[in-house]
Structure prediction request, 286 residues.
Amino acid sequence: MPSDEEQVREAHAAFYEAFSDRDMEAMEDVWARDAPVSCIHPGWSLLVGRDAVLASWRSILEGPAAPEVAASREVVHLYGDTAVVLCVETLADGQLMATNVLAKEPGGWRLVHHQAGPISMAIEFEDDDDDDDDEGPPTGFLN
Amino acid sequence: MPSDEEQVREAHAAFYEAFSDRDMEAMEDVWARDAPVSCIHPGWSLLVGRDAVLASWRSILEGPAAPEVAASREVVHLYGDTAVVLCVETLADGQLMATNVLAKEPGGWRLVHHQAGPISMAIEFEDDDDDDDDEGPPTGFLN
Prediction:
């Protein structure tokens, strides 16, 4: 039996496979059936509920401009039967940072939330060292 | 004893209170001590670990351009001892959509992940109705 982390990574990979394959059936399978779901596409406001979220994905996957996307640098944090996966999404025209939240349902780990947003600065991963006190964002970066 | 949802809303409000009050001590109290933490500031890449995340908040709160921020339209989704809270962040120069993930630690609900990203389209919340099939994002919205 694969560990929870392995199952989470597999479910996370299945999401990006459905995305890049424009496979709506697989996308429906990825999202939770019972747990509440939500989604924040880049630049978009919040979508709540399986119907609204899947309708948005259908619109993206079936649209003429469905983006090619690849996930990389996945970081998995487990909180019991919930997992937060952070990753970089690489598209033709740039990179996004994504948060994906998964929950363990009777049928396995499923996506319950997705947010992706643009990265305007270079990728720089930081470890949990004590020597990074001077590596925070520059002040005023929100302006 | 307040319900889990009430406790989550309270912890979530404490995060934005610490943010807008520029109160670093309160900010340190908001973030989880034991559970793994992560943060994606707008336009920024991923920060992992309590030290890196708190260093970034210290840099923001103590900087000359610390933004005024107010959270609104909170949506709380509970997954056992983990919660996902979605909200709109209103700043002087625009609105962001935020994902906040909280986990229940022995001392109470604490923040384990934060991502905020710009909203470029009008706020429009959708319900989980079946009549919203034509309300997905416009195709090509990522380009």
